[in-house]
């Protein structure tokens, strides 16, 4: 069990060499880990606890892969949302979200308890106001839920699902919303502000105690924050600067898996950049949702 304000170093889990490793997910129904390399356009699946690794290359800056069933993942990419067949490696476009994709791509997202997809967009230059946060449900229509962001990123929910947390990385803030079962969000408030010295907030996960674990791009780690106070209460050190995302999984959701990027990094100084790291922080996570589009 981590103690308050404890700092620990996460062990190496996989020397992956990902240019922009992102969006790790635990598929508990099939006991496997999923993540992507956005820059390489690749999707990876690794059987738990540390088994065979499989990869697919749907391309188009795939930024997110979420489990639908044993043989299919739902992926977000430059161009919209598609279904990836793990048996054949083929993709089927589900929706282009009604957008023009000239300088736009999908970024981070998550499945909620109702099986809907929350997905953010960003321009390739992360231009202020260039992206939005969308909700996609059964009808596959993309509805804007939070507009005009620069780099739409981490999304997670509190235990019980009554609060949604969201970050626009370049704003350096984590915003909380009250959320209704129909996907309506209200009562927006800033709960955490990341100072420049700590890096940029990227992907995040919530634990069973309601604390947020936030990957810090340029910050060499993952911070654990209390959304009630905004205080950082623990820190997982990673031996590379650009830490991109994290998720809980494994037995009893007791493992925190962390992705990193080799992009914008001095590889001679930080040769493990782009690797994945895993730690048992002594607290379990909140189960992730499955996509049902």
Automatic annotation (TrEMBL):
Q: Where is the SMP-30/Gluconolactonase/LRE-like region domain?
A: 20-261
Say which enzyme class the record assigns: hydrolase
> SUPFAM superfamilies of this UniProt entry?
Calcium-dependent phosphotriesterase
InterPro entries, alphabetized:
6-blade_b-propeller_TolB-like, SGL, SMP-30
Q: Recorded E.C. number(s)?
A: 3.1.1.99
Keyword Hydrolase among record annotations:
yes
Keywords annotated in UniProt: Hydrolase
Q: One Pfam annotation, family name? A: SGL
Tell me its family. Answer: Belongs to the SMP-30/CGR1 family.
Classification via PANTHER family = REGUCALCIN
What is the protein named?
SMP-30/gluconolactonase/LRE family protein
Write the lineage as a comma-separated list.
Answer: Bacteria, Pseudomonadati, Bacteroidota, Chitinophagia, Chitinophagales
